[in-house]
Amino acid sequence: MTRFSGDLFDGVTSRAHPVTAWIEAGRLHIEGDGIALTLPLDAIGLAPPVGAARGVVHLPDARELHSTDLAALAALAQALPSRDPERWARRLESRLGYALAALLVSVLVMFAGLRWGVPAAAQLAAHTLPAGLDSRIGRESLALMEKISFQPSALPAARQQALAQQLAARCRQQACPPYRLLFRHSPMFGANALTLPGGTVVVTDALVDLAQHDEEILAVLAHELGHVQHRHSLRLALQGIGAGAILVAVTGDIGSVTDLAAGLPSLLLQSGYSRDMEREADAYALAWLNAACIPPQRFADLLGRLDKKSSGTPSLLGSHPGTQERTGPFQVAGDCT
Questions:
Q1: Whole-structure pTM value
Q2: The pLDDT value given to residue 320
Q3: What average pLDDT does range 17-37 have in this prediction?
């Protein structure tokens, strides 16, 4: 029989009553000054000590018995009915091997969640979010990027209009997702094109200058339309912001839209799209170019030029699959449909 001391709180006042407790015949006995309790073990619960805190034995009528006697509390835990789930948790916690195994499983679960769970959830959320919210995030992202990384385009208005008209003409010949085409000067992004949530596609002056044929620019725009079609920029934002962003998408709480918008520019600048997203956009671009009767080689030519020009600045190649891997399918003559 193990005896241990502790303080009894009667559930009415905050006064601590010093008592002695022990287990006998399947019951917990508690005695002190004017106190004599006998309680069946199935009527009590146990919160074991954590760190320097005392263990707490929960008694009927909101009473509590507090004690620092770890050995006695462990014996009490063993004596509690096996239907108590906490008993098994305490047993697992008390064994180093189980604790290490649980830690390993937790790390693996966390890794799997970040590697596969979060992207899958972000993809689902991106395709279920209302278009209005998507557009709002895009507008706020663009407004922020106008302040930190974009300047008005130096391209002549006629040049911008000609490129926009060429893209619109191709989209009248085949289905294109809704988009908005903008031209901007950006030393930070260099020769680049990027897509924001809501379908805004931004092309930099440096990319237009680098192209040797308008069809090369249209090929890049086809790639960006692939990002629009699959809502990649929104998925990237949701993945970067993490579980909080996914919760916003699932619950419909749009109070954190500004946080999403603020985080997207840095994500686009620092990490870029994932390889899987780039492959999806490339596949869309290849089919689009064939349908538009534009030689897919145009895309490969511009990417090859970008590969030679790239020198540490974010570009279409940033965090993308290797240039050779990407351009291979575009170097095969396509079937003009």
A1: 0.59
A2: 47
A3: 91
Q: What would the two tokens of residue 269 be?
A: 């600048």
**What single-letter amino acid sits at 91?**
R
Length of the chain measured in residues: 337
pLDDT per residue as tens digits for the range 172-204: 989 899 999 999 999 988 999 999 988 999 999
Query: Per-domain residue ranges for the chain?
Result: 3-89, 112-331
| Cα→Cα distances 72→23, 50, 55, 257, Å | 10, 15, 10, 53
What's the maximum distance between 2 C-alpha atoms anywhere in the chain?
A: 97
Q: Which residues pair with 203 in a beta bridge?
A: 183, 193
Q: For residue 321, what are its two tokens?
A: 């699959």
The CATH topology of domain 3-89 is PH-domain like (2.30.29)
Burial bucket for residue 194 (CB in 10 Å: 0-12, 13-18, 19+): buried
Q: What is the mean pLDDT of residues 309-335?
A: 64
Q: Give the whole-angstrom CA distance, residue 75 versus residue 73.
A: 5
| E strand or H helix that includes residue 169 | helix 157-173
